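[job 0412] stage=complex_fold ligand=zinc ion status=START
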Amino acid sequence: MELTTELAAIGATGRLGIVRPGVPSTTIVAAYGQPSAEERVHRAHEWPRWLHYSGLRLLFCRCRLLETAVVEIRPEGLQLPDAGHRRVDTPAAPVTEPVMTAALAGAGCPWEVREHWNIGRDRILWTAPVPGAEVGFSFTGPGLRASGRPVEWSLRTLVLSRAVEHDCPEPGGT
Ligand SMILES: [Zn+2]
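[job 0412] stage=complex_fold status=DONE, emitting structure tokens
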């Protein structure tokens, strides 16, 4: 599948294979194996915790349910664990905002644009495909490259996250 078609499908369904908000960490580890890296959010607590699988980073809450998935769009393509296999799609060119919106329109998926200025300049296209999930396509701004050539907004990360408040228990003792 072409990269943009695949990304639009994620925007339209709120899932990437078995990866969807609320999926238990045990399901992910059973399918993907042990992560290449793990990272605690708070040093004193085992969970919440990030599990890294190549270009895919997954944040699980204290109940060990998926809170957020971050997919890095790298120049060499999208690298995802796929039931033990690495699937790599190589884009012919950077995924620009017009390319992505055309793919979303093709998938019949509406989106909303929000700009964020707090951490550099970011522009995010959000979709809300199913209750409880939202997908953000994060673009970095033009004019940030040193080459002097004008650069369009290009896709840097894709974020899949829980869209509803989740009643996660407080960590014990704090
Ligand atoms: Zn929780």
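The chain has one domain: 3-162.
[job 0412] exit 0
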